[in-house]
Design brief:
about 240 residues; Rossmann fold; 7 helices; alpha/beta
């Protein structure tokens, strides 16, 4: 039986590696992107070489109605789509006093509202079986930097648990809370090495660690409502 997965923000960084992992395991890939067209196109060719189907879906997830339209388009191409990975995210820092309504609404739309309605629309299809939300280890703390980002991820964390209860037994909903896995734009590995010194495990994490968590959550059919912290123990601090 063929399987397919929709990965939002799948053209680069962790999203890209999730697409490669799923394609390597035989999933056809519905690869969502917004601005990264060239990267999405290059990745699509790479995935097709693994013997799976791959279609590109451009969509601006900051627009509320986009989620319903995206799910509809995906299922027309891949009626056997069974996995949704809510990976797309915006990560911006702005002083609390300077945050505008536009800033707040955009962060909320992409990081929370979109996963909410993608989950809602995805769950209406018979083939739907698994939803994975990419969250953040920051939800284990009260952190006032990246203010709106943190609020949205706290929402997504709680939503993961609520959706797992609501959609059971048909659909399992789980989350992954990564720590410092990839350096921020403009920084290199030395940034991660420096930050890793404060972690209980005293080492730098990798995308492979996130993929291992994804593999566990997709393969263990007796797990739902879990949010795995893949952060070297940062959530313990």
């Amino acid at each position: 039986m063929r399987r397919a997965a929709l990965v939002t923000g799948g053209a680069k960084r962790i999203g890209k590696e999730i697409c490669v992992y799923l394609a390597d395991r035989g999933y056809d890939i519905a690869l969502h992107y917004n601005c990264s067209h060239e990267k999405a196109k290059t990745l699509s060719l790479q995935l097709k070489k693994l013997g799976v189907g791959c279609r590109l879906f451009k969509a601006d997830l900051s627009t509320p109605k986009t989620s319903e339209a995206l799910i509809s388009k995906v299922f027309k191409q891949f009626p056997h789509c069974c996995v949704l990975v809510n990976n797309a995210s915006v990560f911006k820092d702005k002083e609390f006093a300077d945050i505008t309504l536009k800033d707040f609404e955009q962060d909320m739309a992409i990081n929370f509202t979109s996963p909410f309605f993608l989950t809602q629309q995805f769950s209406k299809h018979k083939s739907a079986s698994d939803i994975i939300n990419l969250i953040d280890t920051r939800v284990s703390k009260t952190n006032s930097s990246y203010f709106t980002y943190n609020i949205t991820k706290h929402c997504l964390y709680k939503f993961t648990q609520m959706a797992a209860k609501k959609l059971a037994p048909k659909i399992r909903v789980n989350g992954i809370c990564p720590g410092d896995i990839l350096p921020l734009e403009g920084l290199d590995e030395s940034y991660l090495k420096k930050r890793s010194k404060r972690l209980p495990l005293k080492r730098v994490g990798s995308v492979d660690n996130v993929i291992s968590a994804l593999d566990y959550l997709l393969s263990n059919e007796f797990v739902t409502g879990q949010c795995l912290f893949v952060d070297g123990g940062e959530h313990l601090l």
